[in-house]
Structures are given as structure tokens and as C-alpha cells.
Amino acid sequence: DYTVQAESNQALLRLAEILRKSGWMTDGGVTYPRVLSGGSELELRVLQDQDMNGYAFDAATGLLEWSPRVFSVSLDSSTGVLGIYEGANLVWTLGRFFKSFNVATYKEDNSLHLKEIRVTMTTEKADRKGNPITLTSSSSIHMRN
How far is CA 76 from CA 31, 60, 85, in A? Predict the structure, then answer.
């Protein structure tokens, strides 16, 4: 029971850390964050100091500076690992024992705030007797902009 709760809580905290560094931005006609695969994948870009002035915004224009890298958050259902990927490469493991992962922005659910991303995930692990212990967690995380 503890393992399932700890994995869920830890993954949510790690994901919140990343999502708080993201926000709405458009590049090449694509707007991020972008919900894909019916809500089971989230593509995003994060802030990054591009002009090396020590801040993630351009001192001359005041515009936010975004990393050119595109990351996706998704669940590998074959291993139960929820992770952040760059292309096909796992960059950061958010948690283990995941059975489902779903996200939504205001584009998918207009009851959400513009800066809000709703995350719902289910962790599951068998106890010593083989009985499944399942926990579904849901949270709203607010992005930078």
C-alpha cells in the first residue's frame, strides 16, 4: 500500500516541477503544451535561458525564451514506467507501477483555467498475496504562463 502511494505522490511532484517550468507557446505553427493520444501523452517545451543573460527572457524584448527541445510525458504500458521522453529516449523516470495516465488542458476541458493542466493517474502493484493494490490520483498543476 505504501509503495503505491509513494510512487504516485513522487511522480506527481516530479511532474509538477516540470510543468511549472512550461507554458503556452507556439513555434512553427504548433502550440505547446499539446495533448496527444486521447489524453495519454503531453508534449511540452520548457523555459531556458537562450541568450545567457541569467534569465529565461530576452532582456531587449522581454519575451520568454523557450528551449528548442520538445519533451513528452507518457506511460510505457509494457513496463509501467511513467516518464518524460525526448523523442524515443527516456530522459527522466517519474514513477513505476503505473497502469494509466491522462492529461487535459482547457482545450480538452473548457472548465479548466488557461494555465491549468489536470493530471489523472492510476498506480497498481500486487501485495504479498498477489492481490492488486490500486490508487488513482488526480491533481491540477498550474503552468508558468
Answer: 24, 42, 11
For 18-58, write each residue's pLDDT tens digit. Answer: 999 899 999 999 999 999 999 999 999 998 888 888 888 88
Angle 36-144-21 (CA atoms, 0-180°, nearest 5)?
70
Q: Which spans in 25-104 are helix H?
A: none
Structure pTM?
Answer: 0.89
* The C-alpha cell that represents 72 in the structure block: 513528452
Q: Where are the alpha helices (DSSP H) in the chain?
A: 2-19
Q: Locate 21 and state its grid cell.
A: 517550468
Measured from the Cβ of residue 73, the count of other Cβ atoms closer than 10 Å reads 24
* Burial class of residue 121 (count of CB atoms within 10 Å of its CB; 0-12, 13-18, 19+): buried
pLDDT value of residue 63:
85
